[in-house]
Structure formats: structure tokens, C-alpha cells
Design brief:
six-stranded mixed sheet; alpha/beta; five-stranded mixed sheet; single chain; 8 helices; Nucleotidyltransferase, domain 5; 2 domains
């Protein structure tokens, strides 16, 4: 049975304990336990999720915590990952850790070269965590890991040309051919969210302007709602009242919930997001001619497929 909970242990009191390696525990040899559970980590711009997964892709348990503020050092995020792995290892015999990072990962799947929504620049994430956890650690781009899971266990199982689009703080993507991730020369293929769709448009954390994710992502949705509320627009009165005038309290889930309740502005903002999403997907379909295209979020419910 799958369980889910937030990871809310006091950071100060747990960190000293968490920095002990998981390897201090007794565990069976990898050679004699080929189908043992592993921990999958999804590092996003706003949250870090971890789950214990068996060899058949079943999620046995999930925990979640907020992503440390991006102004903090990368080590703080590494500490958070170690804490989550240790917490899950208390209840499961974990033998490996796989990490999906929201950023550009090098072809050797060791370093996070650049993460627009985190303070990672050329960070040797695999080596650093391998030094703290005495189990094998694998690192890849989060969309690559989501695409492979969709091909291996999901609705796109066995498809020979699969394209994955992941929606969250930004937009990620991946391309699979016959079960193999197409990485490009430097390992950063599939960064669909940074295709330019509006020349000279909104500035993106990557440094460019007009990237697709600036018009069809969680960040874009929240930005538009906050701008309307800050301008005291008549169409934003509903959400202004909902947050009691605190514009910075507006979030993506809040906008979605108000849209479900019939708020006209929130409905229109989601329609705009959907229209821009369709523009990008149509371009990808024309360029890549996939047999299967999935849209989802890493670490979340099964994706939509086309």
C-alpha cells in the first residue's frame, strides 16, 4: 500500500542525526537481493519529494518537504536529500538512490551544470551524495527520469518514440527512442521550456527572454495573477479578497481552486496557460514526430497522454 506524508521533523534536531550515512545500518548484499527497494528523489523549484519504489514500480511510501530557499548554499539541499533518505531507510531496506534534478545534468550524470530555479552551478551532486550515503547514487534530469518511468511503467510503455513534457515551477522535457534517453552531445537535450516562443518577452531565470516556460508554467500562472492583483484590477477582486490584500500569498494551487469555484479571472489565466502549452506541444509534434506524447509532473499523478 502506498502512503504519503509531509516530512516535518525539526531541521535543527534531525540534521545532526541525518548527516550520519545510511551505510551505518546493516543490510543485505546487493548480489543476494536484486529486487530490493530503492529511493527516488524529485528535486523541484518549490519542493523535494522522496519515495520508496519496488522493482515493479510500485510506490511503497512517499514523503515531501519544501525546497530550501534558493539563496542558500547547494549543501543545504544536499542535507535535505540525506535527511529524506535516512527517514525512509528507518522503515525500508533501501539499497540505492535515484535523483531527478530540475536542471541541466552533464552527460556523465554526475554534475548539475545549471538549475534555473536552484542555486546549483556545476555541482557534483552524485559524488557528494555518494560520499555520504554508502549505497549507489544515480543523478539525472527530472524530466528524463519521468520519461523513462512513463516508458517503463506508465501509459507509454514500450513506445518506440516517446516525448515527455513536465510541468511545474518551469517546463522540462525528454525524448526517448526505443527506451533510451536522447541526451544530445552535452547531456542537456530536451530543455523544451527554454525554447523561445516570444522574442523579447518575459525574462527567464535562465537569462534569456521569451522562453516557453514563462508563458505556460506554475511560475507564469502565479506571476500573472499577482500582477493583476497588485494593479488592483477589477477582475482580481475575488483573489484579492481571498488573500486579504496580501498579494505575495497568491499561489498556483490557490488559483486552481478558485477557478474550480468559478472565479472568472482564474479561469481565464488557466485558459491562457493551456493555450501557450498547446502552442509548444504543436511545435514539438511537428519537429519530433513522436509516437506518444505525455504531459505530467515529476513525482505526481500519472500524466496526460496524446
Amino acid at each position: 500500500m502506498s502512503t504519503y506524508r509531509d516530512f516535518t521533523a525539526p531541521i535543527g534536531s534531525r540534521r545532526a542525526t541525518a548527516l550520519r550515512t545510511v551505510g551505518t545500518r546493516e543490510r543485505r548484499s546487493l548480489l543476494t537481493a536484486p529486487r530490493v527497494p530503492t529511493v527516488g528523489i524529485d528535486i523541484g523549484g518549490t519542493k523535494v519529494m522522496a519515495g520508496v519504489v519496488d522493482a515493479d514500480g510500485n510506490i511503497l511510501e512517499k514523503v515531501r518537504t519544501e525546497t530550501p530557499d534558493k539563496s542558500k548554499s547547494p549543501k543545504v539541499v544536499e542535507d535535505t536529500i540525506a535527511e529524506l533518505v535516512l527517514d525512509l531507510s528507518d522503515r525500508h531496506d533501501v539499497h540505492a538512490v535515484g535523483i531527478g534534478a530540475a536542471g541541466w545534468v552533464d552527460a556523465d550524470r554526475n554534475r548539475v551544470l545549471f538549475a534555473p530555479h536552484l542555486s546549483w552551478r556545476n555541482e557534483p551532486l552524485r559524488d557528494r551524495l555518494s560520499g555520504r550515503l554508502s549505497v549507489p547514487v544515480l543523478v539525472d534530469n527530472d524530466a528524463n527520469t519521468a520519461a523513462w518511468a512513463e516508458w517503463r511503467f506508465g501509459a507509454g510503455r514500450g513506445e518506440d518514440h516517446l516525448v515527455m513534457i513536465t510541468l511545474g515551477t518551469g517546463i522540462g522535457g525528454a525524448i526517448l527512442e526505443d527506451g533510451q534517453v536522447k541526451r544530445g552531445k552535452y547531456g542537456v537535450a530536451g530543455e523544451f521550456g527554454h525554447m523561445q516562443v516570444v522574442p523579447g518577452g518575459h525574462r527567464c531565470p535562465c537569462g534569456n527572454r521569451g522562453c516557453w516556460e514563462q508563458y505556460s508554467s506554475g511560475n507564469a500562472l502565479v506571476r500573472e495573477a499577482r500582477e493583476l492583483a497588485a494593479a488592483d484590477s477589477p477582475v482580481a477582486y475575488g483573489i484579492i479578497e481571498h488573500v486579504k490584500g496580501n498579494v505575495s500569498d497568491i499561489t498556483g494551487p490557490m488559483i486552481t481552486e478558485l477557478a474550480r469555484e468559478g472565479d472568472a479571472m482564474c479561469i481565464e489565466l488557466l485558459q491562457d496557460i493551456g493555450q501557450w502549452l498547446g502552442v509548444g506541444i504543436a511545435n514539438l509534434a511537428a519537429a519530433l514526430d513522436p509516437s506518444w506524447l505525455s504531459v505530467g509532473r515529476p513525482g505526481s499523478r500519472p500524466p496526460t497522454t496524446c
